[in-house]
TrEMBL record:
This is Cilia- and flagella-associated protein 36. It is found in: Cell projection, Cilium; Cytoplasm. GO terms for cellular component: axoneme; ciliary base. It comes from Spumella elongata. Residues 3-95 form the BART domain. Gene3D superfamilies: ADP-ribosylation factor-like 2-binding protein, domain. It comes from the Eukaryota. Keywords: Cell projection, Cilium, Coiled coil, Cytoplasm. InterPro entries: BART_dom, BART_sf, CFAP36.
Length: 109
């Protein structure tokens, strides 16, 4: 999975000793958003045979018509995927898991 691989590789920049966000996290987040946008645009144009603009207009129309619809929830998920705080939660979790894995590996040596 492209996203899981990206998060695992780039989570090494995360400093788990502090809750503060470093400037370099913004650059990594922008890379992540570009990757997401490339993948979603490819899916929309190749699989759905639609333009990105038409897809978002249709999604917005469905979301506006019924706030609790599956389309509205899907739109919220798409927005969350490109939310910095959600991204940083994923990065911190991956950094912690990688740190734990490395500690376990070094204990077995």
């Amino acid at each position: 999975d492209h996203f899981e691989s990206f998060i695992n590789k780039r989570s090494v920049v995360v400093d788990l000793s502090t809750e503060e966000y470093k400037l370099e996290y913004t650059a990594v987040f922008n890379e992540y958003k570009r990757l997401f946008e490339e993948k979603i645009e490819g899916f929309i144009t190749n699989q759905l045979k639609s333009t990105v603009q038409d897809f978002y207009y249709a999604l917005k129309a469905k979301s506006d018509a019924a706030e609790e619809s599956s389309e509205s929830i899907f739109a919220q998920i798409l927005i969350a995927v490109t939310d910095f705080d959600v991204f940083m939660t994923m990065m911190r979790e991956a950094a912690a898991a990688n740190s734990e894995r490395l500690a376990t590996e070094s204990d077995h040596k």
